[in-house]
Specification:
alpha+beta, globular, disordered C terminus, single chain
Length: 113
């Protein structure tokens, strides 16, 4: 089930205009924020909304390669992932996180229950 939710989450982020790194099926989904101040601002705003995240910046990344890492597990539900996406959409206007000029068209990734 984790792979299905990872694909759903990754593709939802890409469709919304966020830049993400990593393997398509990796349970760690890094969202590029570029700068550490933007990354710290995201972590603060997300935590205020009840979402805990892991942020990574220089020297663990290139100077302009700061990112937020979403660590997924099999215990996450679709509802939790959708809430996370809603929180991202709420925070995005404050920090300008939609940095991709690409828009993707993916097939529906809903799982069959």
């Amino acid at each position: 089930m984790t792979r299905i939710w990872v694909r759903f989450f990754r593709h939802s982020l890409q469709k919304r205009g966020y830049i993400i790194y990593g393997d398509e099926y990796s349970p760690v989904v890094p969202l590029l924020t570029y700068t550490m101040p933007r990354c710290c601002g995201f972590a603060k705003e997300a935590l205020a909304r009840g979402l805990a995240t892991v942020i990574v910046g220089f020297p663990a990344t290139p100077l302009l390669g700061s990112r937020v890492r979403f660590c997924m597990s099999a215990s996450h539900t679709r509802e939790q992932l959708e809430k996370t996406l809603d929180i991202l959409e709420d925070i995005e206007p404050l920090l300008g996180l939609k940095l991709s000029s690409k828009r993707y068209n993916y097939k529906n990734t809903k799982s069959k229950k």
